[in-house]
Amino acid sequence: MLQKNMDGNEAKHDKIYAELISVKKKLEDLELEGSAITEGIWVLHMVNGDPDHKDSKIEWSKQFRKLLGHERVDDFPNGWDSWLNAIHGDDKQQALDAFSAHLNDSSGLPLITLNTG
Question: Could you tell me which of 81, 78, 46, 51 has the C-alpha nearest to residue 62?
Fold first, then answer.
């Protein structure tokens, strides 16, 4: 009987080990996918359709920060000031115009592209 119990525990152990290996592989795949992403995502929560409303908030993704050379939220906090401060002065008006056009466009097509070259 003791031998039967030990065999049952060994089978459970093997099953759990196989599941852990599977989860580890999935996590490695997700990490690889994340490292291949070159787009930065941002989410704008607008109040009354007004991005300048005092309660409207913008959030930057981890990848967005990483593309700009920041790893932590403390280095590039959510909010307009972080983005505005990251834009070169010569490009600021063009960037603001493109962003405004994007917010006012209802086609769903991407209007903003980044030239990193």
Answer: 78
